[in-house]
From TrEMBL:
InterPro entries: Glyco_hydro/deAcase_b/a-brl, NODB_dom. Keywords: Membrane, Transmembrane, Transmembrane helix. The lineage of its organism: Bacteria, Bacillati, Chloroflexota, Anaerolineae, Anaerolineales. GO terms for biological process: carbohydrate metabolic process. It comes from the Bacteria. The keyword Nucleus does not apply. This is Polysaccharide deacetylase. GO terms for molecular function: hydrolase activity, acting on carbon-nitrogen (but not peptide) bonds. SUPFAM superfamilies: Glycoside hydrolase/deacetylase. The chain crosses the membrane at residues 217-236. Pfam families: Polysacc_deac_1. PROSITE patterns: NODB.
Length: 316
């Protein structure tokens, strides 16, 4: 019996790159502990199943000398390093074409400097991209993109983010890119040169975030933490029954213990007008238990690879 393809992608968003000190009890500064422990924990976690992930990383996190050895180690272990912009601007969609290019190319250059190769995949911060990005990525030699989240509840997710980010700029209060992306194909596809949500021959391979069939309910780690194991396992059974491939998205915060004293004061305080993900308040042991249960289900039915490996063999 044939098995479907699957991949785990992880947005390596540090507190520093997301919040930049806004709303924190100890503004500014940078601690390498989050990146170190997060990468070590996720490498150890996936080693059990010999799964290699795709890590969407922020260029600024490569600047700290202490970070470089951890990034190099996980790259040598077989995990893919992909592009998540240089400075993680939440309002990436609203940047000028030149600013977008600087964010993409800047991360690519520092990635090449640290790990010895350029990334070939890109995801916009907060999935907040637009169709203009395709030409930049094509020109820079990228082969895939992964910012499309084709969920039916996109308007609700946009509204919640807007309300939770009330103290931020208008562009930083936006998320998830163009509204038409909610109607994009739910399986990997080749885009057109002018639209991330339309199939074509001259664009990029798009790896949308997984959603359930028909109702298009999100199937990713944040939703698993929010709804619990039973509901996410129900979604999984629907996806598997329909023989859909899986692209399960996670975050660095899913593998970090935020009770560590070095990190506790860098989490935005309640009422600061900054959204605080569930992962920052869930004990690490609980997070790993829930994720472990889901991975166990998936490895029984799916073959895992990095997005880069998947893109090179995909038939679109």
């Amino acid at each position: 019996m044939s098995r479907e393809n699957a991949s785990i992608s992880i947005d390596v968003d540090t507190l520093s790159s997301i919040y930049k000190g806004q709303g924190c009890t100890r503004p500014g500064g940078y601690t390498y502990v989050e990146l170190q422990t997060g990468l070590e924990n996720l490498a150890r976690f996936f080693e059990k199943w010999n799964i290699k992930t795709s890590l969407f990383m922020v260029g600024n996190d490569f600047k700290l000398p202490k970070n470089r050895s951890y990034i190099q180690d996980i790259h040598k272990a077989g995990h893919e390093i992909a592009n998540h912009s240089m400075s993680h601007p939440q309002g990436f969609r609203w940047l000028s074409l030149q600013e977008k290019e600087n964010e993409i190319l800047g991360m690519g250059e520092i990635c090449k400097e640290v790990v010895g190769e350029y990334p070939v995949g890109f995801r916009s911060p907060g999935w907040n991209t637009d169709d203009m990005t395709i030409s930049i990525l094509k020109k820079a030699g990228y082969i895939y993109e992964s910012s499309v989240f084709p969920t039916s509840i996109m308007p609700l997710m946009k509204l919640v983010h807007w309300l939770n980010m009330s103290k931020q700029t208008k562009t930083d209060r936006t998320t998830m890119g163009q509204i038409n992306y909610m109607f994009a194909p739910v399986k990997p596809y080749k885009t057109s040169l002018h639209s991330l949500s339309s199939k074509g021959e001259d664009g990029l391979i798009e790896f949308p975030i997984s959603v359930s069939p028909v109702l298009r309910i999100p199937f990713f780690a944040t939703f698993l933490l929010f709804t619990g194991a039973n509901f996410s396992q129900l979604l999984y059974r629907q996806i598997h029954k329909c023989k859909m491939p899986i692209h399960f998205q996670m975050h660095l915060s899913d593998f970090v213990d935020y009770d560590l004293p070095e990190l506790a004061n860098q989490i935005p305080v309640s009422g600061s007008g900054t959204a605080v993900p569930q992962a920052l308040h869930t004990p690490l042991s609980k997070k790993l238990e829930l994720f472990g249960q889901m991975i166990e289900l998936m490895v029984a039915d799916y073959d895992f690879s990095t997005l880069k490996q998947w893109a090179k063999r995909i038939d679109v």
